């Protein structure tokens, strides 16, 4: 069942975010970044063909068994925007990501998230569209990520920057509620569980997977459970 994109959802998200005692991470050894979790509307069945051929982005990335990496059959109702990063990027190439990046000097996390949203996917939204913030997530690659939840106000029409983003997908929020989601696996390199969010024909890992899990737990369900202790896969440590 899809989730209706309406004022009731917007107010539920805003209320749950406002009532949360947000976890902030302070670490002078890490750089601060922000990502935009943009909530938009979508139509069921509009994404039956992936606009990005696998060869254009995979860049040798290992694929799980029985999955081919395509993000298809995920649209419908209230959705979030998910980006497939370009394979030629110097860091985190070919990975799934939310629009975002490092804060410029003097910028707030909201300003940075909205600026990166404009630069990466061609969407310019005002600060009045911000519903609230999720918890900070410290990454293995040296960043503290602050997720900024933004109400898009409709379908929107992304125009991704080809230097950074191969394609932008509307992923229905109902997929975050799948019976097989979230998944947790153990790895020998860390005592912390690696989180996996099944979407389409792929698995979304932290940090993006951790952000999406809290979008479900806090935004949709009102659960304050932390996600900053969830691990990233080793390929995302660099």
Automatic annotation (TrEMBL):
Pfam families given in the database record: NUDIX
Superkingdom of the organism of origin: Bacteria
Family named by the database record: Belongs to the Nudix hydrolase family.
Species of provenance: Mycolicibacterium cyprinidarum
Keyword flag Transmembrane helix: no
Residues of the Nudix hydrolase domain: 30-195
Protein known as: Coenzyme A pyrophosphatase
Cofactor section: Mn(2+); Mg(2+)
Gene3D superfamilies in the cross-refs: Nucleoside Triphosphate Pyrophosphohydrolase
Keyword Metal-binding: yes
Keywords attached to this entry: Hydrolase, Magnesium, Manganese, Metal-binding
InterPro entries: CoAse, Nudix_hydrolase, NUDIX_hydrolase-like_dom_sf, NUDIX_hydrolase_CS, NUDIX_hydrolase_dom
